[in-house]
Amino acid sequence: MMATSHARDADTFPKLIARNAATRGARPAFRLKDLGIWQESSWADIHMMSRHFALGLDALGLKRGDKIAVIGANRPKLYLAMMAAQSLGAVPVPVYADSVADEMAYVLEHAEAAMAAVQDQEQVDKVLSVSERLPALTQMFYDEPRGLRDYDHSRLHAIDAVIEKGRAVAARDPAAVKRLDDSIAAGKGGDLAVILYTSGTTGRPKGVMLTYDNLIAGSRIGIDFDGLNETDEVIAYLPMAWVGDHVFSYAQAILAGYCVNCPESVDTVVDDRREIGTTYAFAPPRVFETMLTLTMVRMEDAGRLKRRMFHYFIDVAKQYGEKILNKEPTPLGARLLYGLGDLLVYAPLRNRFGLTNIKTGYTAGEAIGPEIFRFFRSIGVNLKQLYGQTEAAVYITMQPNAEIKADTVGAPAPGVEIRIDDKGEVLYRSAGVFAGYYKDEAKTAETKTDDGFVRSGDAGFFDPQGHLKIIDRAKDVGRLKNDALFPPKYVENKLKFYPNIKEVVAFGQDREFVACFINIDLVAVGSWAERNNVVYASYQELAGHPEVYAMIEKHVEEVNRSLAAEPAMGGAQIKRFLILHKELDADDGELTRTQKVRRGFIAERYAPLAAALYDGSQEADIATEVTFEDGRKGVITARVKVRDVKTFPVSEQREAA
Amino acid sequence: MNAPVKIPVGSAPLEREEILLAVENVSLSFGGVKAIQDVSFDVRKGEIRAIIGPNGAGKTSMLNCINGFYHPQQGRITFKGRTRPRMRPHEAASQGVARTFQNVALFKGMSTLDNIMVGRTLKMKEPFFWQLWRHGPAMREEIRHRAVVEDIIDFLQIQHIRRTPVGKLPYGLQKRVELARALAMEPDLLLLDEPMAGMNLEEKEDMCRFILDVNNQFGTTIALIEHDMGVVMDLSDRVVVLEYGRKIADGTPAEVKADSRVIDAYLGVAH
């Protein structure tokens, strides 16, 4: 670990950026792939640009304490906007770029954003469409000029033009420069650094206020734990409004001085990751799941020799890979075989995934399927789970090397205290713990205890090795009518670990038994259909296909068997299920923007189907309104079949839990 | 079919008086089949001009005449003020006419990037031999052309398929690659033969936006054939209607829509 990252005097990001420019000015800070070429900016460039940008914003009237919304895909210019705002003591508020105008308006209104830095015409249009709700918003900046030429530019500016304006100010107005220097010097660690709105599975999003101290303390946990330094490379493609991106691609990058790579577009991430060869990665399980599903699908299409080689060596990896990664003793023969497999299969695969140079990869946000998790570890990717929250500036628990289990999220991170209350809810305290919810004293008081612990809202327990196991949201853990424990997420995740299943919504609270809606994964099931000559014309038809039902039924049965093996969960076996005729979609309000299911809303929207699960009928009709991408509405009607599934006797032996 | 969303187009319609292409009294027949009979119309600089009509009305033949693939037996075609003698497609191309085809005509085994680079061929001046050896000037020329192509890739948002063989792409994307290749020629006149045939609603809307953007950003004059009336009415400045090789109407979308002969041609009428 380098001494510089511990420089205690630099307690805000603007000061740290100045430090980076002084100590590693020539090292890359950002790369953006544009027009097919990686365009690099050094820390010295970024420092200069952030200063000029700040001077430009100052000239446009941005004041200390003002909020500035940042909306768009991960672009250096948008990260620069955050740096520039912080230099003036203003507070950036990153917003989910895929939110619809109304959701966006809520955040901008609640945060009282005075200005907004956005990516492109799409975002400009969205903000303009709700501008009458945003009286506080005075100026807007955009990164990509395409399509915006004929817009009214009295309150709209290209980010480049603002930086240019700042450059001119720097050249002729020493007083303004002095003001900026004073403003940066006046910033201190206790100041509000950012407000991150959590997407919220229920109700309106809440604005989590994090100070520089919170973010720097939180970031340092990860930097020290994994030995991150200026030679590391990450690729930034997850929403900027998510705390994960804010810590991994902004706070830690500035603190450790590593380079953040911005992909060309969301569709090119896989190739871009491969070109960069990230050394440090952070992604929700979905990303790893997609990588694995795509690989498996492609391998089915590969030639026979390749396919056999792949399956043979993947089996070898399953047997020895994790042990070798954990540096446990393994027989010499196995090591040699694994070495051969590495040459022929694992290394090319890692290269395909862009994970050749990876030091540590993290998955968080949701539970990851044990199969997927083990797969990546077995081919030599040091993938780990961590448990974090926006309110903690990410880190709560982490998995130390060689102590990695697929079904726990690891031990408390250094400097984090955890306790579990009598209802099973996890509480934590650390230096990264947030200052409070913006303009919501009541919620803050509800979440933070008097002694500084934060209620995570998750139910969990420690296993004998001191590793935390999360089962569900505390408020979601329910009971069936017969008082059996019903953790919906736990059941859903068990099913979602099958590649053929994309989403699951489980019901059971105050019911006789557990039943669920299932969404098939179009890629996996589609490819299966192709291989098995199953003909279908639409998603709806595929979802209702008897053979698909049979396949899914088999998965549900297996899950029941595994639930039956856990005495506490045995009552939560699934008695009936149905396959939904349409994909659950955030645009229809069925998922949150982070792709979590909104159980209550779905139960209401598909009430006839939910009723059919429990009234014993074999099929049910449903008509649902859907929203197309352009905002128009349509109606999908369908007749959906309901299936009964075999359940298993619950095993007798008690488990210490 | 639902009409695509109306997209606000730039404020200033340039001075659209200058005539870029004039077709005068053109007739074309194949043996006894009279594909086009005495058709006249013009295309003004900077406009989007639609050619519509029922199947077999002679629309594609008309485009083939314009880009020199067919030679009309009678009539004159004047492009950029020059009345052309018999000429071949590559001559039309070098004068600034580019086109896409009703059935995608790309090199299926080549990547998207290579397909679009093909559109620059006419503008490459360095000899083949020097290109082969990556000789300095040839190399620099290629880099210059590649930059233009990358701009187009960015413009049409096809970065993610840059290296993908075109044959593996879905149809909607192939159409977009074809448009990219035509744009790579930096044409004065872009001929689009059913750019949205076989596309789904979302692909159509994307394509509409791209066509408008091309027209808006590069000021390219566009003549297009299209069956989707919603698209035609929304996109085009003026429409010419053909039926059985004859012109039956010519005017703004609103005028054409109200024309009784057009309604008859499309809806059929008891003769």
The percentage of residues in β strands of chain A lies in 15-25%
Most extensive chain interface and residues per partner = A-B, 17 and 21 residues
Helices and strands of chain B, in N-to-C order? EEEHEEHEHHHHEHEHEEHH
Distance between the termini of chain B: 28 Å
* Amino-to-carboxy terminus distance of chain A: 39 Å
Mean pLDDT of chain B: 84
Which regions of chain A have little confidence, pLDDT < 50, spanning 5+ residues? 1-7, 653-657
Instruction: Compute the number of structural domains of chain A.
Output: 4
CATH C-level class of the largest domain in chain B is: Alpha Beta
Query: Oligomeric form of this entry?
Result: heterodimer
Short summary:
Chain A is α/β, with parallel strands linked by helices and 657 residues long. Chain A has 4 domains: 10-281, Rossmann fold (3-Layer(aba) Sandwich), CATH 3.40.50.980; 284-381, no CATH class; 410-475, Luciferase, Domain 3 (Luciferase, domain 3, Roll), CATH 2.30.38; 478-644, 2-Layer Sandwich (GMP Synthetase, Chain A, domain 3), CATH 3.30.300.30. Chain B is α/β, with parallel strands linked by helices and 271 residues long.
